[in-house]
Amino acid sequence: MNRWLAGCLLLGMCTSSLLAQNKTPSTNSSAPVESEADHAAKRVEIRKLIRLTGAANVSADALRQIIEPLRADFPQVPEEFWNTFIKEVHSDELIDLVIPIYDKYYTRGEIEDLMHFYQSPVGQKTIQVLPKLSLEAINAGQEWGRMVADRAMRKLKEQGFDKTSSLQSVPPRQ
User: FRET pair for 9, CA 20 to 30 Å: which of 47, 169, 170, 172?
Assistant: First the structure.
């Protein structure tokens, strides 16, 4: 079950890296209040942006890929569950959940700027390479984590800690 949770967390991280830019929300209280029509139009633009980038499809594909190792880890779960789960992945549902997040962090003008960017040659390239870049970055992060863990284990071993417990090894009596 821990792999299931880890898979869901990984999906969330991948989705957020694919769907979000690291911006902070505007807290300018003097900003004009949007009319309902403007707000609805902004949400339409957000939907277009998400579709343009293909972010929802990438996230749905990532979810489908996460299912494969989970199938192996949970052989007691019927195959029909996994098949039904995959059939129930609808990217439009994810888009509906993500629109309010974009709405929270971006103005309509910023959404338009992002649309222009993603329609540019470098934006199109970003759309193409971001899934591969993200996967390679995740792999690099995992490798780095292993390196850090190995160094920490070596240092603890040098200090006399047994690698199988949190207790310091007791030197044998002479």
Answer: 47
